[in-house]
Automatic annotation (TrEMBL):
Gene3D superfamilies for the chain: Jelly Rolls
Source domain of life: Bacteria
Stored SUPFAM superfamilies: cAMP-binding domain-like (SSF51206)
Pfam family, one: cNMP_binding
Listed CDD domains: CAP_ED (cd00038)
Organism: Adhaeribacter rhizoryzae
Residue span, Cyclic nucleotide-binding domain: 35-120
Protein's recorded name: Crp/Fnr family transcriptional regulator
């Protein structure tokens, strides 16, 4: 999958440029993987085993509470990393599910391989830390949106951040992600100028 590997290299260098010898070591830990639509890749209660690089398709991380209410937390699509990162990096059972919404193509690396390359290549560890820091900043911004913004403001923010998301993700998942009733989400699509 040379196209996927080239896209992974572009993403890595966008996060934190690394030397060619560091890239050579990092690129060796990735294996191709395909999944069907609506396939559970990580289940709550299991440890996340892989860091995924999304080459094709759309996935989501979601949560079920004790009353069986569902919360969509994050979407992943090409070119980005995916999986349940807290479970992976802490090697603790996941509290979340990671599933494909469409047929998906990935490169994936096991935790032991990722850990080993991070320990032997400081630039790789720095790149991972910088990437996680960017993710945390985005997560904190999203928490502010969820707690402070109206439904229309959340919808507009989502479209500013990811204008193509309406074509990628089924609307029921987008509504859940924003904490908006599906009927209100449909009204927003018709009301807000895209």
């Amino acid at each position: 999958m040379p196209e996927a590997t080239a896209a992974l290299k572009l993403l890595v260098n966008a996060i934190y440029p690394i030397a060619e010898e560091d890239w050579a070591a990092f690129s060796l830990i990735w294996q191709p993987f395909r999944a069907k639509r609506k396939e559970a890749l990580t289940v709550a209660g299991e440890k996340e085993k892989y860091l995924y690089f999304v080459a094709e398709g759309v996935q989501r991380v979601y949560y079920f509470d004790d009353q069986n209410r569902e919360a969509t937390l994050v979407f992943s699509y090409a070119p980005s990393f995916g999986g349940v990162l807290d479970s992976l990096l802490q090697q603790q059972p996941s509290r979340y599910y990671f599933e494909t919404l469409t047929p998906s193509v990935f490169l994936r690396a096991t935790f032991p391989d990722l850990q080993q390359v991070m320990q032997t290549r400081p630039a790789i560890e720095t790149m991972v830390r910088v990437g996680i820091t960017h993710s945390l900043a985005g997560l904190l911004e999203r928490l502010v949106e969820l707690q402070c913004y109206s439904s229309e403001e959340k919808f507009k923010k989502l479209l500013q951040r990811s204008p193509h998301i309406l074509q990628l993700v089924p609307h029921k998942y987008l509504a859940n992600y924003l904490g908006i009733e599906a009927t209100n989400f449909s009204k927003l699509i018709n009301k807000v100028k895209l």
